[in-house]
């Protein structure tokens, strides 16, 4: 079955995570995504772990379902080839430092002159404009300056989130922006420039934290008053059981009533605690009584009892359990992709589910320049003998 984005061609100049991840989401949906890498070594991510037998799986995690070519933008021939690709493409995705595309000779206005319908999508740490736009950035830098590290504050100080949220969230936002730009192009016939900043994307998920600070002076750069608990609801925390941990959210009054009835604990079943205002006023007592109940349960028993009662809860899964969980297969969130030299390796699937257009293609990430000849022959009109010359000169 054809993907919903069949017929859309994307030139992916991305490296590391944010732009390649964005391109992969769209490739999963049927877009023809051409990953363009530098001649020789390819993108920097090809030398990052995790490794098995000296083989990196980093690039495969963010580049499945794409085709791959190499191109030297420092040569006149390479620039001319790229212009030909722009003529026949819909979108360019890049995540270089602002100004790099202009130095290469391909700022948005130049690309627009080649193809007025082209959409250029640029991801950077701080955006193409603004006083910090010149700063180099990786995920951690954007996370620090967005407030994300401070919101994850502990007694030992601000702490990383453990995964590159900035890269992934900006990739998702960027894919959304590309879809809106494609929709707008259907009406106007014109492409446009998309400016996505990682720091903006991370800050956008701070929901009530900003007005909370403005109105009540509650900042994020302090040790949370309620520890790991939800500052807006009670009981809502991660609780230790005999053999693991369970996350509970019984903060709303109906859910709390059901939770208290499951526990049968007289302290939790007090009439006053049926109102969230009273529970918040006596937060630590309610949290302690809740913790005491969980301490006497196994994770499976606690999860079963609460789920049967309709109380929101979930066992804290590690990667081993996620990999083995039947739901991961049922939801297609663990997909196996062939990695040369390693065989089938599990990767994270695409969470987008369109019933009439299911994702069926699970192609591995391309090897460095794997599809160069195919793409340049069909899209740039380059003959076989020219390819050999270009390869000898280091153009491709």
What does this structure look like?
The chain is α/β, with parallel strands linked by helices. 40% of the residues lie in helices and 15% in strands. It has 18 helices and 13 strands. β9 (236-240) and β10 form a beta hairpin. α1 packs across α8. The radius of gyration is 25 Å and the shape is elongated. It starts with 8 loop residues before the first strand and ends with a helix. 36% of the residues are buried.
List its traits.
396 residues; alpha/beta; six-stranded parallel β-sheet; three-stranded antiparallel β-sheet; 40% helix
List the helices and strands and how they pair.
Layout: E1 9-12, H1 18-28, E2 32-37, E3 51-52, E4 55-56, H2 58-63, E5 67-70, H3 76-87, E6 91-94, H4 100-103, H5 108-114, E7 119-124, H6 139-146, H7 148-151, H8 165-188, E8 193-197, H9 198-203, H10 209-216, E9 236-240, E10 245-249, H11 253-263, H12 276-281, H13 283-295, H14 299-308, E11 313-315, H15 319-324, H16 326-330, E12 334-339, E13 343-348, H17 372-380, H18 384-393
Parallel strand pairs: 1-2, 1-6, 2-5, 6-7, 7-8
Antiparallel strand pairs: 3-4, 9-10, 10-11, 12-13
């Amino acid at each position: 079955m054809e993907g919903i984005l069949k017929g859309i061609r994307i030139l992916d100049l991305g490296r590391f995570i944010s732009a390649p991840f964005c391109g992969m989401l769209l490739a999963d949906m049927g877009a023809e995504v051409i990953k363009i890498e530098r001649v020789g070594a390819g993108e920097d991510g090809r030398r990052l772990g995790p490794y098995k037998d000296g083989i990196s799986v980093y690039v495969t995690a963010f580049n499945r379902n794409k085709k791959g070519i190499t191109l030297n933008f420092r040569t006149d021939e390479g620039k001319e080839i790229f212009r030909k690709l722009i003529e026949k493409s819909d979108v360019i995705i890049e995540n270089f430092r602002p100004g790099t595309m202009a130095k290469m000779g391909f700022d948005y206005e130049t690309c627009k002159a080649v193809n007025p319908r082209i959409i250029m999508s640029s991801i950077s740490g701080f955006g193409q404009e603004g006083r910090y736009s010149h700063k180099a950035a990786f995920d951690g830098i954007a996370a620090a300056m967005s407030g994300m590290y401070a919101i994850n504050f502990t007694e030992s100080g601000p702490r990383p989130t453990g995964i590159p949220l900035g890269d992934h969230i900006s990739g998702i936002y960027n894919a959304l922006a590309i879809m809106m730009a494609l929709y707008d192009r259907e009406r106007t016939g014109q492409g446009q420039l998309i400016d996505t900043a990682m720091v903006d994307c991370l800050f956008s998920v701070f929901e009530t934290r900003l007005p909370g600070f403005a109105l009540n002076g509650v900042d994020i750069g302090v040790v949370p008053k309620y520890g790991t608990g939800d500052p807006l609801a009670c009981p809502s925390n991660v609780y230790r059981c005999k053999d693991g941990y369970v996350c509970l959210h019984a903060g709303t009054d109906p859910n709390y009533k059901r939770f208290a009835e499951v526990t049968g604990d007289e302290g939790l079943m007090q009439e006053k605690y049926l109102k969230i205002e009273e529970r918040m006023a006596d937060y630590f007592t309610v949290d302690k009584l809740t913790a005491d109940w969980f301490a006497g349960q196994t994770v499976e028993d606690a999860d079963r009892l609460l789920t049967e009662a309709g109380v929101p809860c979930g066992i804290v899964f590690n990667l081993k359990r996620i990999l083995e969980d039947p739901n991961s297969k049922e939801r297609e969130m663990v997909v196996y992709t062939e990695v040369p030299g390693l065989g089938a390796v599990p990767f994270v699937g695409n969470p987008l589910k369109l019933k009439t257009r299911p994702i069926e293609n699970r192609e591995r990430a391309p090897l460095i320049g794997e599809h160069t000849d195919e793409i340049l022959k069909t899209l740039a009109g380059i003959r076989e003998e020219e390819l050999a010359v270009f390869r000898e000169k280091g153009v491709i």
